[in-house]
Amino acid sequence: MNNDRIFDGIAEKFSNNIYGTTKGKLRHTLLCDVLSPYVAKPLRVIEIGGGTGVMSAHLASMGHTVTLTDASKDVLEQAATVLSACDGITIRQQYLQAIEDFADYDLVVCHAVLEWLDAPFDAIDYIFNNMKSGASLSLSFFNQDANLFANAIYGNFDYIAKGMKVKKQVRLNPKKPLSAMRVVEHCEALGFQVIEKAGIRCFHDYMRDISHQSSKFDELLALERQYHKKAPYMWLGKYFQLILKKP
């Protein structure tokens, strides 16, 4: 776990980059949309790698009891400020692989975590093996297939030819993007029931005129909502979200 990417020292930059942009706003909105039917009644929720607590705050506002975990002390200091007025949230500094009480929760939320880990598929296995039967997992991750598609559009052919690996890893670049189809197959092989599949930002990141990302945000959001659960568009989401259930 020591090689996993955490955000100590760059917590503010991380927060601004994720939530201070149209891409962050759109991602959060769509993740909440997909989750919505599965959080209609009060649940015990644990969020893995919850960062500054934006999703935890949303879930707590709906009446759920939430445990927010993250490996980064700096990020959780920001979360404590963001969540100071929220009831029903417990904050723990903890690596995913050190969490031992998954069985206490009805819903596990793991959004944009896998791509920062050294062994993302091992992490999926660990969550599945420790969840209780009947519990659900909301899993989202940076989509390697969409990443390749985007780089082709940008003309980054040398980068693609090198396997989309860089000599010097930028700290806010995901460590290990994952193929959406491969993750689906892995989860099914483990024994998860795949309840829902959705692409997150199927159109936003490919817009030729990036000013439209903000000037036409409402129209863009409506289009994303219309198509993000439909093939082939969902497979082009820059992030991919799964709602999974352990039988």
Question: What's the short story on this structure?
Answer:
InterPro entries: Cmo5U_methylTrfase, Methyltransf_12, SAM-dependent_MTases_sf. With about 250 residues, the protein is of the alpha/beta class.
Task: Give an account of the 3D structure.
With 247 residues, this protein is of the alpha/beta class. It has one domain (11-245): 3-Layer(aba) Sandwich (Rossmann fold). Helices cover 38% and strands 17% of the residues. A 7-stranded mixed beta sheet has the order 3-2-1-4-5-7-6, sandwiched between helices. The mean pLDDT is 91. GO terms for molecular function: methyltransferase activity. Catalyzes the methylation of 5-carboxymethoxyuridine (cmo5U) to form 5-methoxycarbonylmethoxyuridine (mcmo5U) at position 34 in tRNAs. Its EC number is 2.1.1.-. InterPro entries: Cmo5U_methylTrfase (IPR033664), Methyltransf_12 (IPR013217), SAM-dependent_MTases_sf (IPR029063).
